[in-house]
Design brief:
mainly alpha, Growth Hormone, Chain: A, 70% helix, transmembrane helix, transmembrane, membrane
Length: 508
């Protein structure tokens, strides 16, 4: 009788262990990994996305003067960029000495990020100098995000399009929530801000828990699970080039080295492939075109948004609808790229020539960039009147810009991953290229936000601002252009120096 009970208990334990193992395999597999990394991406930038989308309500809730709203948020985004760049460089340098697969660092910094968001909620209830506290804590959050993202992207390179999509879905979530609150409690900006950030905090707490599970499960599988021969692409003796089924440029010919993949230890085969991976510079050359796709429209976007488009062209209350509707349009562009990744195999391996035609998507943003500057400094009053305080024109310009930008940027990030794959996987040096791509994006993001601050301060000092646009100078057009160009960089650099002196007090 006791033996039967013992056997029954063992069977139940075995069934439970099998169920746990299957759950672990499903969550660690492609679908489970895509869900967890997508959820983490969904919450990663949410605190800053809220500030971007509901900037009008935040400005009112924090008692920021209307004339300096654009400068406050431009400086906030720029300062976050600086801190994020410094933090990203720190992580990048640390990872030169540890493996890209190391999970200890990512678990530590993800915990710090959650702590910073807890502190933010606390200061949201402090009455005195609330705008200053919010500014400082959002910058602290940027430091944690910068530390974390350089560990996040290399570990999740296989899910890059899903990550980009979830970034946009995050903005869409905030957009829809804000639409509802605009209908219900539009005249209660502080309540709107608190609802947004409390929901974001709850989601961040949950995603951090999922991230811990993903990293620990991934580490355990990598430690205890031997690689299978079926994971290695078939390599032939008479072929220097890879099969069309591989995503590499020179996958090592194992048979030429005297190793038979069918009879040798698959760990030896995997080690041979790892050692033969192309150099970092080779990966850089292969992925240079999509790498630049990630940066070119980003440069224009950081100069235009939000200081010029919409706040430089529209009054603050009219700008709210622009900030709201750019969100679903950006999601549409990223969704197209994600659909291509799922359904078109050629975009997931070394790019063919025709994928580089995506560069044509940079033309509309370039035109909009030019027209925005032209409307602020027109050669005639008629040119300015078509856009200044014209909500429809500004909205169309913003929507077209964000659609093209989101499409080409998402395609660029996917292209970098596709072009650094070796034997169907993103390996150690490929992950380093993914990290480098992200770091370059952070540096570009910061530099061009500082240029935007310098330009906005110069523009306003010359009288090119709402409501009346009355220039207070008598310079010729050539001298004006030279003056603005010089002062943009001088004042942008000066603002960078004064960031350390907390001159944000001047604008609140």
């Amino acid at each position: 009788m006791s033996n039967n009970q013992t056997n029954a208990a063992k069977n139940q334990t075995s069934i439970l262990n099998d169920a746990i193992h299957k759950l672990d395999e499903s969550m660690g597999g492609h679908a489970g990994g895509e869900f967890i990394t997508g959820f983490m991406a969904f919450t990663l930038y949410m605190f800053m996305q809220i500030a971007s989308i509901i900037s009008r309500h935040m400005a009112v809730a924090l008692n920021i003067p209307p004339d300096t709203t654009g400068i406050y948020f431009t400086k906030l985004f720029g300062a976050r960029g600086l801190v994020s760049v410094i933090a990203s460089i720190m992580t990048y340098l640390i990872k030169l000495f540890i493996s890209e697969d190391n999970i200890i660092l990512t678990l530590i910094v993800s915990s710090l990020m959650l702590i910073s968001r807890t502190v933010f909620l606390f200061f949201l209830y402090v009455e005195k100098n609330r705008a200053l506290y919010v500014y400082n804590v959002l910058i602290m959050d940027a430091m944690c995000v910068g530390l974390f993202q350089m560990t996040f992207y290399p570990l999740t390179a296989d899910y890059v399009s899903a990550i980009s999509l979830c970034f946009k879905i995050s903005r869409l979530w905030i957009f829809v929530l804000q639409l509802i609150m605009d209908l219900a409690i539009y005249d209660k900006p502080m309540l709107i801000v608190k609802i947004h950030y409390w929901l974001a905090y709850i989601l961040s707490f949950t995603s951090t828990g999922f991230w811990f599970y993903f990293c620990i499960s991934r580490h355990n599988r990598g430690t205890h699970k031997r690689p299978k021969p079926t994971n290695v692409p078939k390599l032939t003796k008479d072929s220097e080039a890879p099969s069309q089924n591989t995503n590499d440029t020179q996958c090592v010919s194992v048979s030429e080295e005297g190793i038979n993949p069918s009879s040798k230890d698959p760990e030896s085969l995997e080690e041979k492939i790892r050692d033969s991976e192309p150099s970092f510079l080779t990966h850089l050359g292969n992925s240079f075109s999509p790498l630049m796709m990630c940066l070119v429209t980003l440069m224009m976007k950081n100069i235009l948004f939000p200081g010029l488009l919409p706040y430089g062209l529209l009054e603050r209350d009219k700008s709210h609808i622009v900030n709201m509707f750019i969100t679903p349009v950006g999601l549409a562009g990223t969704s197209i790229v994600h659909g291509l990744k799922k359904n078109v195999a050629s975009i997931n391996r070394r790019w063919e020539w025709y994928w580089h035609f995506l560069w044509f998507l940079a033309i509309p943003p370039a035109i909009i960039f030019y027209k925005t500057l032209e409307s602020l400094h027109p050669s005639s009053s008629s040119a300015r009147s078509k856009i200044i305080n014209n909500r429809t024109a500004v909205l169309v310009m913003a929507l077209v810009f964000h659609f093209c930008h989101s499409l080409i940027e998402s395609a660029g990030y996917l292209g970098v991953v596709s072009n650094v794959k070796y034997c169907n996987e993103v390996r150690e040096r490929g992950r380093k290229m993914v990290s480098t791509n992200q770091l370059l994006g952070e540096i570009t993001h910061f530099i061009f936000y500082k240029i935007a601050v310098g330009y906005n301060v110069t523009r306003i000092s010359l009288g090119y601002h709402l409501p009346k646009f009355r220039p207070n100078h008598r310079m010729s057009r050539y001298n004006l252009c030279a003056y603005i160009l010089r002062e943009t960089f001088v004042r942008g650099f000066d603002d960078f120096i004064r960031d350390f002196k907390m001159n944000i007090r001047d604008y609140i």
